[in-house]
Amino acid sequence: MTFLEEMVFRIFLMFQLCYLGYSEPQFVSSFCIQKSGSYSKNSLYQDNLSLVFSNLTSAASIKGFANFTADEGVDKVYALFYCRGDLNLSDCSNCVETATSRIVYECPNKKEAIVFFEECTLRYANRSIFSLEEEDPNDWSYSEAMVSDKDQFNDVLTAAMSGPMNQAAYNSSKRGFSTGATTNSSANQTVYCLAQCTPDILGSPCHKCLLAALDNLIDEGRTKMSLFMPSCQVMYSLAPFFSIKQEPNSSPNDPGLKSPADALPLPSTGNSKTYIAVGVTAALGLCIMLFALWFWLCKRRVTMKREKTQQISHNVQSTFTYEELALATDNFSRANVLGQGGFGFVYKGILPNGIEVAVKQLRTGSAQGEREFQAEVEIISLVHHRHLVSLVGYCISGDQRLLVYEFIPNKTMEFHLHGDENPSMIWQTRLKIALGAAKGLTYLHEECYPKIIHRDIKAANILIDDEFNAKVADFGLAKFFLDTDTHVSTRVVGTFGYLAPEYAASGKLTEKSDVFSFGVVLLELITGRRPVDRFRRFQDDGMVEWARPLLKQALEGRIFNDIVDPRLKEYNPFEMAQMIACAAACVRISARQRPQMSQVLQTLEGNLSAEDLLKESTTDNDMFNKISDDGSSSQHKEDLHKLGKLALQSSHTQSTDKFSASTSELVSTSSTENQPDTLEL
Q1: How far apart are CA 548 and CA 542, in angstroms?
Q2: Which of 101, 125, 149 is a domain's end point?
Q3: Which of 129, 418, 435, 667 is deepest in the core (most CB within 10 A)?
Q4: Which residue, 375, 410, 379, 407, is CA-closest to 392?
Q5: Does 189 fall in a domain?
Q6: CA atoms within 13 A on the CB side of 541
């Protein structure tokens, strides 16, 4: 930092301290959960903890709440943070970064701990802590000053807190955070209140938590007090302490309560108006000048920071310069091309430390490519799972956009299942791939907040490592999805044959759209057929419609021969029945009738019976032919014909391309000759 920058920074910091009350995160307390046990130094649990802390710190710069998990089994770590809702992202990021250091200092080697700051709460555990309403452990902070009339103040406090608590719990647009201010005219007191829950427990659980917190504050008689719980927090003070984002509340049942604006004294008249005007103008001018200088310095620091390497995950995830990637790929040599997609080339590269990577170079000037780049960096850099392809890093240099992935040498599920010269995949390999992909998708839907909808689940986007473990790839079309959303309306993109009918027809996207696509993947593993194949059009409606009666026949009569891949000579009948049940449930036309991915995973693992899966996800006996409320069967088939025609036309016009547009195919070196590209419909 230059001398000028340092001076401006100090002046602005003094301005914040004097006029805005800004300070470093205020530590309240920490709790080390002894009963959860301890981890060893340099253990896998410690590595996973470092990983989730890194992800939480990164997430805090773009949102005020996030949760993450790392690894599986006994060393799995669950972690989350939430910042006070009126905190800006810079202060939120600062608080979370401070909290990750403080919690390790306060609770060394503990498998579960929580730390409370006035500005944020951070916790981790070796058990699931997501979407749970938990009130212990808890702590409070308070002022030593007392109110004059405790009983009267209790009534005012209860009335003042009711509005923010209801808004935080039941108004989804508030995202679990609400404030309010109420004045008692008889006591000439204004009570400023704040209520907040983690956004994953909105509704009754949130309100229950806030009520429990408020019960701990009543009868204390303090002029300022805060109660911190793992799932919620409440605060009040007789002085402003938050940025008011809504109109002050007043109770219609108490004539003695009025808004703070009504309680303010009127300014004096005469010459004092002139002095006030001059003073305000001078102060405002100074503020604007300082803010402009500060904004310029912040922008400059952000620009410089983008050029530096930053640790985003436990691997070598970072930013790269264009020159570094040119060196890694031998100046983007044609000999290193893994594939060509709709928005660029992918090259094999070797980093200076010897790690092999796949470098995707997006075509310059492509708006869709720019959207995919932003989606990949925003989403995949914040998630980590053994069944998701990792983003090693990225590069922004002028108009160049490059993504660097881990290199998966064993190509894709599509290559091994549909390659003409490849030996037929044995049953255990097919089941292993299905389980891996299901675990990755379950993580995106049910263990990330906000949940992530992939939008392009297909065989070409499931990469295979040397041990035939599956990894879900290509997050260029992925979307965040909040629990409060019923659906997300968006343009229709994806690959024909895998598109859920309600999404293809209306653009209404939910996680059940991914479930349908995964059902198609299961059908591919079962039947050995492609979803759409212009060289073997077993039915105009595609593989799913062709398979529906055969799925019913297989489950009702245990007759598998007509639907199972004829190349599959040996398989476990129980496991086959489980996978067929999963496929049948996933490809139901009605989105509401499809199961959650966690249910599909349990069924594939044998922990949930096929009968229970079909029973839990529908109450209709006609489980395979039920049509959704979105349209009739004839309309559904008409939509399929239209989309099929478009897809086949697209595949004809692009038949000269050697490689598919799927990012995953590029990463894994596979190609698809008969499969239509990802389309925007």
Answers
A1: 11
A2: 125
A3: 667
A4: 407
A5: yes
A6: 13
Amino acid identity of 320? F
What residues pair up with 639 in beta bridges, in sequence order? none
- Beta-carbon contacts of residue 424 (< 8 Å; ≥ 6 apart): 528, 565, 567, 568
Q: Are residues 538 and 568 in the same domain?
A: yes
Q: What is the pLDDT of residues 149-198, one digit of tens each?
A: 888 888 888 888 989 999 999 888 888 999 998 887 776 788 999 999 99
The distance of Cα 107 from the centroid of its chain, to the nearest Å, equals: 28
Per annotation, catalytic residue among 456, 514, 533, 639: 456
Structure tokens at 203: 């509704």
**Residue 610 in tokens:** 């096929």
Domain count, the chain: 4
Domain membership of residue 461 as a residue range: 425-608
> How far is residue 423's CA from residue 416's CA, in Å, rounded to a whole number?
8
Per DSSP, the three-state class of 268 is coil
Q: How far is CA 65 from CA 139, 187, 241, 475, 528, in A?
A: 21, 38, 21, 21, 43
Are 416 and 464 in contact, with CB atoms under 8 Å apart? yes
Return the H-helix or E-strand segment holding 557.
helix 543-557
Q: Examine the domain organization and report whether 350 and 388 are in the same domain.
A: yes
What does the alpha-carbon distance between residue 663 and residue 391 come to, in Å, rounded to a whole number?
Answer: 12
Does 238 lie in the same domain as 380?
no
Looking at the structure, tell me whether residues 85 and 224 fall in a common domain.
Answer: no
Containing H/E element for 479? strand 479-481
Q: What is the pLDDT of residues 566-610, one digit of tens each?
A: 999 899 999 999 999 999 999 998 999 999 999 999 999 999 999
Cβ atoms of 32 and 109 within 8 Å: the answer is no
Whole-prediction pTM value?
Answer: 0.53
622 catalytic? Reply is no
